[in-house]
Design goal:
Number of domains: 1
Oligomer: single chain
Structural class: alpha/beta
Strand content: 15-25%
Number of strands: 14
CATH superfamily: Metallo-dependent phosphatases
CATH topology: Purple Acid Phosphatase, chain A, domain 2
Helix content: 10-25%
Length: about 375
């Protein structure tokens, strides 16, 4: 039986951990824009029970503000869990085993399933026992297409095609989505597995080249692409000088792709591939570069991660704001967790040059 004092503490905890929308005068985004949210690696939330309220504050904020802030799409950059395998044993500093981690991720992210389309990538920790010792993953068991009606084409969702994983199973590890944004922009979003195998990259290149998507803004979502020094992962040129290269994971290195591989085989060849989002790497956990593709058009490639910060990531998410002019993006870094403390202007926004910046993409037709 709870005492009045324990109930008071429970109520205070709920007040402190429940995200509250910023007041209209505090919200800096243009009311005529729409927003794409980017969730970084969530592994350091789901493997600590005490960190889960921080992740849940992000998910609840997205769900609660999807209409008010015109949130049209959510991307998650992989490393959904810290430990894919060894079902009951713990292999991290956290207190959640692999079963609990997948359950935590599914229950939390699943709150968005009927509210806003959620597109996920898979990371190295989502494979093998703990860290890509092989390409076996429980991702497809916990994130099933039929449970996400806004994605499932059988329920009117936006997925158009999947490519089999290494075991021949069709999951959302390699998937493409045809999304119509709130401003009418048609977008082709391609999500590729951890260290994409060459056949998966070839599938993506063929799909992006199809006439059906010749008028779409194309976007690549994958786990390891941009490095924290504003370059791409490039094993051939830099080897072990870049930490955590896809080629340094023995279980998947025989058939893999890093950022430079993806640039050469896929991204640069697609005139309309204008955005690439990835996580994975540490350092200062942010990075970006803009490179001209073979058609002479700009492609913006961005790293965003937060997993090494306290509390699993302090609730930092990316808001990619598509401005009303039809060709400008304002990228911001925001924490619903800090915003819930009641002073969103002071603590909830990161304002450095790699956290708050503008970009140009092709104009709406």
């Amino acid at each position: 039986m709870r005492t009045p004092l324990s109930l008071a503490w429970l109520l205070l905890g709920l007040i402190l951990t429940t995200p509250r929308p910023a007041a209209a005068e505090d919200w800096p985004c243009d009311p005529g824009s729409w927003i794409m949210v980017v969730l970084p690696d969530i592994q350091s939330y789901v493997d600590h029970a005490e960190h889960m309220p921080v992740l849940e504050s992000c998910v609840d904020w997205i769900a609660d503000n999807a209409a008010a802030h015109n949130i049209g799409l959510v991307l998650q950059e992989g490393d959904i869990v810290f430990q894919n395998g060894v079902y009951f044993a713990r292999q991290s500093s956290g207190n959640q085993n692999s079963f609990q981690q997948w359950r935590n991720a599914r229950q939390s992210l699943g709150r968005l399933s009927g509210t806003v389309p959620l597109i996920l990538a898979t990371g190295n920790h989502d494979y093998g026992s703990r860290n890509a010792e092989n390409r076996s993953s429980r991702f497809g068991d916990y994130f099933r297409l039929e449970d996400f009606p806004l994605l499932d084409p059988q329920q009117g969702g936006i997925l158009v095609e999947m490519h089999p994983n290494v075991h021949g199973r069709l999951t959302m590890e390699n998937a493409a989505y045809d999304f119509t944004a709130p401003d009418g922009r048609r977008m082709l979003i391609v999500s590729l597995e951890w260290g994409p195998r060459r056949e998966a990259v070839a599938w993506a290149a063929d799909l992006c080249s199809r006439p059906a998507y010749s008028g779409h803004t194309q976007l690549l979502l994958t786990h390891a692409y941009t490095y924290h020094d504003d370059t791409r992962f490039d094993w051939q040129a830099k080897g072990d000088a870049q930490a955590a290269s896809p080629y340094s994971y023995g279980g998947t290195a025989a058939d893999t792709s890093d950022g430079e591989d993806l640039w050469q085989a896929l991204v640069r060849r697609q005139p309309l591939m204008q955005l690439v989002f990835s996580g994975h790497v540490g350092g200062d956990m942010v990075g970006r570069l803009t490179t001209e593709n073979d058609a002479g058009l700009a492609c913006h490639q961005m790293l965003f991660n937060a997993q090494f910060l306290p509390l699993g990531g302090e609730g930092w998410i990316r808001l990619v704001e598509f401005l009303p002019d039809g060709h400008s993006l304002h990228v911001r870094t925001f924490s619903p967790w800090f915003a819930a403390d009641g002073d969103p202007q002071t603590y909830a926004w990161r304002t450095g040059p790699d956290d708050d910046f503008t970009l140009e993409i092709s104009a709406l037709p």
